[in-house]
Amino acid sequence: MNRILAWLIVLGLAAAPAWGQGQPRLQALRPTPGLASNTVQELASAGDSLWAGPLLTVYAEDEARLFTPDDPVVARRLEDGSNVVLSLAAEGGVQGGSTVWAGLAFDAGGNAIGAGGFLVSTDGGASFSTRPVPLDDPADTTVAYGADTLPAVPITQAAGSPPRDLAIEPQADTVWTAGGRSGLRRWTAQDGAWTRAVLPPDTSTRIEPTTPTDFLVAPPQDDGRGFQNHRALSVLVDETGTVWAGTAAGLNRSTPGDVGPSGDRAWRLFRPDGTPNSLTGQLVLGLAEQPRPDGRNPVWIATLRADGGSVLQRSGLTVTPDGGETFRQPLIGEQVNDVAARRARVYAATENGLFVSETQGRTWRTVEEVALAEPEQAFPGELTARAVEVTPAALWVGTTAGLLRLDRADEPRLLPDAPDAPRPEWQLFRTEVPVNPDEPTEQVPDVETYAYPNPFVPSRDDAVRIVYDVPEPQTVKVSIYDFGMNRVRTLEEQEPAGQQEIVWDGTDASGLRLPTGTYLYTVEVGGTTVRGKILLSN
């Protein structure tokens, strides 16, 4: 399951990773290999390796470091800043034999995300190849389903069709992708191509290839045609081979027994109905499987209430312990971005911290702040968790302030019996760019201050962070001006000595959202004033 907020730009709900800096000089500020942004929203594991976005980054336990694969295909597709990793899937027991798929996306303008194709490795990241964007030919105006030929709207544009989620089906050498407007698609090694999966229309709860049917296969169109259930947002293949597809209309399920002789699948559509035995919300933005030593693995479902949806919908977390026969709603009202599990312990990454349960969601505790193992590091502010994953050796949390790692042996200490018990210490991976470096380079230039991400898109990024150096403890004043040099916001912080940063959310002194434009800022520190520029885009 992948970081949900990055998937929501076209829904107008939330944010994607920072796409890169606005000026070439700033774009080079990436000294931490692979960790291009401190907002980490994509995580996947295979064996003892953890893969992360927004660049393709891997942490291998035997090397104990975070790095980007040294492959020209990866460099060509990612390091020029045109693409980021929007979705990840990994499978395999050991690094050398694992398969990794990375779904790429780019900023298509106008709050739209474009599909950038896929990076694929079948040797644990030693080498990569590419797979094409799953789009249609303009002549693809029909789709075969069973004995029927259904009318279809061909999806020919990359904008609005990014790979929001990926799932690997190793037994069948098959990969599924949820591609927004392009719907649910399937890749097989045998065909070497993407095929369009037919899901039920919003007006049905089940379709079967053996039963005649007739409807338009298309996401919502400007003329009112099409269906929200054909906007795919998440996908999962569980241990039984059951395929789960989350859409803007609910949750679709197809079991191995639902596959017809032609390969077409029957699907059951589940929607929220306001009862505890249903989904919390209509927008199914994330799916995760909880491996259990005995019995069927539960499937966890992260949802949001659709804009304008009924009062029966709520954001939260739903779980089905029995393959869709029953549902429970263990976490209601939280914006859940990701879920991971290790045996009986379930982790939910939310906007309000990391939720932890050892009771299948009946009770939860929240990790809102973290202690770091390195005394020279500081975690800025409360924990906003965007992704969570487990490897055999560690728990990983992607946040808006970097990537956190906790040794597996310390995980039980997240739920202390005594309120005053010492908390476990985390390792923090974070993009750190020094100001006024002793030895400037092309990647770390000599600057007195900078802001990131820049351009700053409030609908996409939590905030812009202004970085500066403080020679001794003092009050630092940051003033932000519009292009006419009218002061729109003043920020003040009592800072210790060293490199510090202050956060701006793109609003004026009254809390009103400022319009798109170029904003200048000054930092008054140590009796001097340094200046910078922020490009704000709404």
Helix-strand layout with pairing:
Elements lengths: L23 H4 L15 E4 L2 E4 L4 E4 L4 E3 L4 H7 L5 E8 L7 E11 L2 E10 L7 E3 L10 E4 L2 E4 L13 E5 L4 E5 L5 E5 L4 E4 L9 E2 L24 E6 L5 E5 L3 E4 L12 E4 L12 E7 L9 E6 L11 E5 L7 E5 L3 E7 L2 E6 L2 E5 L7 E3 L3 E2 L12 E7 L2 E6 L2 E6 L17 E5 L19 E4 L11 E7 L3 E8 L5 E9 L2 E7 L12 E9 L2 E9 L2
Parallel strand pairs: 28-32
Antiparallel strand pairs: 1-2, 2-3, 3-4, 5-6, 6-7, 7-8, 9-10, 11-12, 12-13, 13-14, 15-19, 16-17, 17-18, 18-19, 20-21, 21-22, 22-23, 24-25, 25-26, 26-27, 29-30, 30-31, 31-32, 33-34, 34-37, 35-36, 35-38, 38-39
Question: Would you kindly provide a brief summary of this structure?
Answer:
This protein is 2% helix and 41% strand. The protein has two helices and 39 strands.
Query: What is the correct CATH architecture of the domain at 132-333?
Result: 6 Propeller
Assembly category = single chain
Low-pLDDT residue spans: 1-32
Overall CATH class of the domain at 132-333? Mainly Beta
**Helix share of residues?**
under 10%
**How big is the Rg?**
23 Å
Mean pLDDT: 86
Number of strands: 39
Q: Give the termini separation.
A: 28 Å
Q: How would the global form be characterised?
A: globular
Main beta sheet: 5 strands, antiparallel
Question: Structural class of the secondary elements?
Answer: mainly beta
CATH topology assignment of the domain at 132-333: Neuraminidase
| Helical stretch tally | 2
Strand percentage lies at 35-45%
Please state how the strands of the largest beta sheet are arranged side by side: 15-19-18-17-16
